[in-house]
Amino acid sequence: MDTTPAPFIPPAPKPRSSPPSFFEMIRIVYRNPLELWGEPSYNEPWISVGGIGGPLVIANDPGLIRHVLVDNARNYKLATVRQKVLRPILRDGLLTAEGQIWRRSRKAMAPVFTPRHIFGFAEPMLKRAEEFAGRYEAVLGETVDISRDMTTLTYEILAETLFSGEIAGGPGDFEHQIDRLFETMGRVDPLDLLRAPDWLPRITHLRGRKTMSYFRGIVAKTMEMRKERMARDPDGVPEDFLTLLLRAEGLDGLSRSEIEDNLITFIGAGHETTARALGWTIYMLAEAPFERDRVEQELKEVLCAEQDPAKWLDSMPFTRAVFEEALRLYPPAPSINREPIETDRYRDLVLPRGAQVLVMPWTIHRHRKLWDRPDAFMPERFHPENRDKIDRFQYLPFGAGPRVCIGASFAMQEAVIALAVLLSRYRFDTVTNTNPWPVQKLTTQPEGGLPMRVTRRHQH
């Protein structure tokens, strides 16, 4: 007899049974785009409709997604609506740059994200995670907001690995400002959906301007501090992300403002996405004790036998699978938007020039035709023996193609190290007011936070 308990079904909007009215749609897009999608989005290979800003194609079929993101990627640019949301924040950072600027930036950053370099980050990741975990000793038995805590932890790991701990300004202040930035700038403005002219002021951007200038100030100050140090002591500077980017400055490399844009992209998007996925992972494990026991058992065995944190990702398949399943259910980047430069075809589907092509990890990861019990938390999908059954283009937490997330292996290593440290020492349990609701504001965030009680598991 199978004693495995029924899997946990985490909270998510129910697919709509009928399309929203025009004004309702505007409201939903501003409040929470995840609530927009109807039954066809979770059942059909693709949907092609006339949208308010022109034709709209929603791509769920792995073959079509591969066509848009890889095989014919040259014919697709970043979608106008997405650019209107992100460019005011990130300008020419890696997520928003196109053409030559994007190619230069990607090339300049590639050395930081080679496997050798990433393995080198494992020790500092571990050090930061252990320091952070130590703070829970002061709040044992109390309720903390795991969502906020994970933002702090990933920010500290990012600051340590990519900037060697040398970011101007205090961290607490910084995280608060990042929340504000995504709250204001990271939303689709209804005027952008309507393709209104750019001279009409966007309320979302007006509210975020102060936060944005705070950010740019910190980044400029951080760059200045490092440049002075490079001039003063060229051999003593850390070979981190910041140094590598600053060394790429010049006529053939990056301009000063492109470096600034990329630093903002990595500080903003780089730690926020991993933080969200870690928060959702810890929450779902609390609601799925069977899976949590499995992870705790694995951690106990591996941590006794393997001291090198760079090897944990490969030696902790259950822990990794739990995180990958969290990335499936709550993809930190829930939509990938493209626009055909020239009209394109895929089988009998026409993708008109200038159409919005939406590749939605949110709906693809929960698609009825692609997954068994798509709404359930079932980490075994990602256990080594099942991993090969998942099509490369039905699971897109980091995107795909030339613009695949450059920090994917950095994030996976960071997540497994953070989970290993936290879950080997502590238990995080839900409390009566743990009632998160996924909301899309650039990333998939838990509205209402993740209040959880922390208790110590056992002494090492």
Describe the structure.
The protein has 460 residues and is an alpha+beta fold. It has a domain at 22-99 and 116-163 and 273-456: Orthogonal Bundle (Cytochrome p450). The chain has 17 helices and twelve strands. It has helices spanning 22-31, 62-71, 80-90, 99-109, 115-120, 122-134, 146-163, 171-184, 190-193, 203-232, 241-247, 256-287, 289-305, 312-315, 317-329, 361-364, 408-425; strands at residues 46-51, 54-59, 76-78, 143-145, 336-340, 344-346, 349-351, 356-359, 426-430, 437-441, 443-447, 451-456. It has a five-stranded mixed β-sheet. It has a three-stranded antiparallel β-sheet with strand order 4-12-9. It has a two-stranded antiparallel sheet with strand order 6-7. The longest helix has 32 residues, at 256-287. 43% of the residues are buried. The model has no long low-confidence stretch (mean pLDDT 90).
Strand order of the largest sheet: 1-2-8-5-3
Quick one: how many beta strands?
Answer: 12
Indicate the CATH architecture of the domain at 22-99 and 116-163 and 273-456: Orthogonal Bundle
What best-fitting shape do the alpha-carbon axes yield?
A: globular
Number of helices: 17
Order of helices and strands: HEEHEHHHHEHHHHHHHHHEEEEHHEEEE
Gyration radius (Cα, Å) is 22 Å
User: Could you name the CATH class of the domain at 22-99 and 116-163 and 273-456?
Assistant: Mainly Alpha
Strand content: 5-15%
Give average pLDDT, whole number. Answer: 90
* CATH fold group of the domain at 22-99 and 116-163 and 273-456: Cytochrome p450
Helicity range of the residues?
40-55%
- Classified in CATH, the superfamily of the domain at 22-99 and 116-163 and 273-456 is Cytochrome P450
